[in-house]
Amino acid sequence: ALPISAGLLQAARRYTDIAVITICRFSGEDWDRKGISGDGDFYLSPQEQEMVDAVTAAFPKVAVVLDVGGMVDSSWFKENEKIQSVLLAWQAGIEGGLAIADILCADANPSGKLVDTFAGSFDDYPSSAGFNDSDDYVDYTEDIYVGYRYFETIPGAAEKVNYPFGYGLSYTSFAIRNCCGRLEKAEGGTQIVVEASVTNVGKLAGKEVVQLYYSAPQGRLGKPARALGAFAKTRCLQPGETQQVTLRLAADSMASYDDTGKIAKSAYVMEAGEYSFYLGNSVRNTEKVSFVYKEEADRVVLVLKERVAPSQLAKRMLADGSFEELPVQAECKAERFPGFVEGNPPRKGHWEGDAAANERGADAPEKKIMLMDVVNGDASMEEFLAQLTNGQLIDLLCGQPNTGVANTFGMGNLPEYGVPNLMTADGPAGVRIRPGLGVCTTAWPCATLLACTWNPDLVYEIGAAGAREMKENNLGIWLTPAMNIHRSPLCGRNFEYYSEDPLIAGKMAAAKVNGIQSEHIGASIKHFACNNKETNRKASDSRVSERALREIYLKGFEIAVKEAQPWTLMTCYNMINGRYASEREDLLAGILREEWGFKGMVTTDWWNKAYQYKEIKAGNDLKMGSGDPDEVLEAWKEGKVTRKEIETCAARILETIMKLD
Predict the structure, then answer these.
(1) 238 exposure class (CB count in 10 Å sphere: 0-12, 13-18, 19+)
(2) Rounded to two decimals, what is the model's pTM?
(3) Reading across the β-sheet that carries 579-580, which strands appear in turn?
(4) Residue 329 in contact with residue 311, Cβ under 8 Å?
(5) DSSP secondary structure code for residue 206 in this structure
(6) Per-residue pLDDT tens for 432-471?
(7) What is the 3-state secondary structure (H, E, C) of 554-614?
(8) Catalytic residue ranges
(9) C-beta atoms surrounding 202 within 10 Å
(10) Helix-strand-coil split of the chain, %, nearest 5
(11) Hey, what's the torsion of the CAs at 236, 242, 243, 248, to 10 degrees?
């Protein structure tokens, strides 16, 4: 980069006393960012720092615009008195430039709040120390203490924060008053209800975000000092205007998962003691609510089964910053499928003369049944599937060729039985289609920016708008939202994900799914789960405790499933505790379907390295972008997978196709 010239600065200074510095950052799939001082990624490059020094020396007023896809160093402007304001623009999509101009000129009043903690340095994040230890695994030793749960809890960590979770400025000011709380009995159980009045005490119209945090007793399990329990965004309030807000959270949602049996193994537990509540507009700017919820004795809320437990995670962090040892079991090492080449186009199986491939179900009907017969109720799904050969059934479980404007392949494609080839489209920031066709779609703001609105209603509208573009282009499944946790600032796909907090991630994802599916287009929440690092993502093992998995990394998915029932869910590339997620029956059949009640279809991410027959047995229905029918047929011949298991997956795929108008 060329240094900025003194002549240019002097010429500009004759016309204005305000300068705007823009810093851009990008990241992407299959690679992670860098966190080395001076690297020009998380930190400024030397050339950028020289530019900042030159501009701040030449102008008395300086504003910074951060056009970034993920967290960046904030110390260089927080500690610089010559920089008066900073706009965190994220990646704002097709209208981003105009929106930034409106905010800089005060023609619009910003109302966003951070959904991540901005620490003083990259090394201050608890995930940083081991992020690059190995390409083969990542140890989640910080356990449940992710993001603000770490900084607000662990001794000495609070002072490392530059900008806390939930923080965000406006051109006006608000007062949150008259906070009161109560218990309310509801059909689903006891609820904590907190009410408050929000008044615009400034001079410009604007919106405020009201955030409710709870503090649970430390007990034997240990807890974060603060956890987000609920939030609400006001309407646009005029100066002097007041709005009453009501926030609710289920009392049992404050329970902690006991994965080692300190109280009740494999159960959610409300430990005895007082649960306090704090209301405000960031995790640190709060007032204690004059209401306390009490548990007189430890109470088991929900008894589950041990699932997806770690085998190689040796230790995890406790609330006082120390670590406890975990039992290390025999290593469970996944086998990688050897014969798959990434990028292979989808294909039909070629089994001419193969008696096993052409064998039909034992109860195959004499009359040909079309899928529309099942839709109309004239035949059952079981009857439809019984007439198909093994080869046809297996083909249904494999990705299908692109048609029209699609470039991420399809599903179904059995025209002789009336099964259409249903097309998919990426991705979280807009409907992605094959280039060069003259068809345009909207570039929406990145997921992190959407989360910073703290406005699920707005995200719902974006989901519905994107779904209408899907319809216009004859596409059926939108591969969004992506909703993994911002465990580290360096994850290359953080811009596709919402937050370090699972409640924000779950609520935003549920809103987008509901918006998409309101237009009878399918959504696909992804990447299930622990896709928090892109380096060697198809073979890396995420080693995480069952408690952290359930309370942090799966919780957002749980919220989205229960509140929106997405038509499809996409598994991740990586392993979780030694096994590929797409091969884990305890994750898919157990947690996802049995515990959460997921009713949709599960697909792999594109061209993963797992065995398809193992995925079928686990409940992963569809292998994209192509699958390997030969491998599945051979596994069936050897008795490794049954026709019934194949039929179960095929039924879920067909039921998904049948949901389309």
Answers:
(1) exposed
(2) 0.97
(3) 137-139, 541-543, 575-576, 579-580
(4) yes
(5) B
(6) 998 888 899 999 999 999 999 999 999 999 999 999 999 9
(7) CHHHHHHHHHHCCCEEEECCCEECCEEHHHCHHHHHHHHHHHCCCCCEEECCCCCCCCHHH
(8) 605
(9) 17
(10) 25, 25, 50
(11) 120
